[in-house]
Specification:
With 201 residues, the chain is an alpha+beta fold. It is 18% helix and 31% strand. It has four helices and 13 strands. A five-stranded mixed sheet has the order 10-9-8-11-12. A hairpin with a 4-residue loop joins β3 and β4. The longest helix is centred in the N-terminal third of the chain and has 16 residues. The protein is globular.
C-alpha cells in the first residue's frame, strides 16, 4: 500500500486549516489501518527540527504509512496555468489523499506546462489533477457534487456557503463564465481563475 499524504499551507509561521487536516489525517488512518498510529498532526509539524523560522510561504508535506512518517517543508511557488484540457477517466479513485499520483500524472503526460486537466467521470466533472474546482455562472459559485477528493479548502468554502454543490456535465461548462482551481495552498481570492473559454474539449 502506498503511503498517504497531507499538504498543508505554512505562511508567516502559521499552519492553515489545521483542524480540517487533523480530521482527515486521523480518519484516513482509522479507515485504512483500523487504528491511529499518529495523532496530533500540528505538534508533529511544529516540533520538527526543519520547521521554518521565516515568514515565507511553504508547502508542508506530510507522508505517512504505518511504519513511518516523513515531514518536509518546500518553498511554495504556484503554477502558471492558462489552459484547461478536458479528459475522461472512469477508473481513477482518489478518496484518500495518497502519495501515489501515478494515474493522475499519466493523465497530464505530454501536456504543456501551462495546461491543466479537468477530469470527467461518469459524464460528470470531478476535479483537476491537483485541485477541486469551482465555476461561476454570473451569480453563484458551484463545485462538482462528487469530486475525486473531498478537499480541505473545498469543505471550508462549502461550510461558509461561498460555493454550492451541483452535478456539472461537459455541456454545462459553456453556461459558466469563470472557473477556479481551489486547494489548501491558496486563499479563495488568490487562487487560479480562468475564463471558461480557456477550456479545450
Amino acid at each position: 500500500m502506498f503511503p498517504f499524504l497531507e499538504s498543508i499551507r505554512l505562511e508567516n509561521r502559521q499552519l492553515s486549516f489545521m483542524q480540517r487536516h487533523q480530521v482527515r489525517f486521523v480518519t484516513t488512518q482509522q479507515d485504512n489501518w483500523g487504528k491511529v498510529h499518529y495523532n496530533d498532526l500540528s505538534s508533529l509539524i511544529i516540533r520538527h527540527p526543519g520547521f521554518p523560522k521565516d515568514d515565507q510561504k511553504y508547502k508542508c508535506r506530510v507522508v505517512y504509512s504505518p511504519e513511518e512518517i516523513s515531514i518536509s517543508f518546500i518553498t511554495y511557488t504556484p503554477r502558471f496555468i492558462t489552459r484547461l484540457q478536458v479528459v475522461t477517466d472512469e477508473q481513477i479513485h482518489y478518496r484518500y489523499k495518497s502519495a501515489d499520483r501515478s494515474r493522475l500524472d499519466a493523465l497530464t503526460t505530454g501536456l504543456p506546462a501551462d495546461t491543466e486537466i479537468l477530469i470527467f467521470q461518469n459524464e460528470l466533472l470531478t476535479d483537476s489533477s491537483f485541485s477541486n474546482l469551482a465555476l461561476f455562472d454570473g451569480k453563484d459559485w458551484w463545485t462538482p457534487k462528487v469530486p475525486l477528493l473531498q478537499g480541505i479548502h473545498r469543505g471550508y468554502l462549502l461550510d461558509k456557503r461561498v460555493i454550492r454543490e451541483k452535478d456539472i456535465t461537459q455541456a454545462d461548462l459553456k453556461k459558466f463564465k469563470q472557473i477556479r482551481l481551489i486547494n489548501a495552498m491558496m486563499d479563495w481570492n488568490h487562487t487560479w481563475e480562468l475564463p471558461v473559454t480557456a477550456i479545450k474539449f
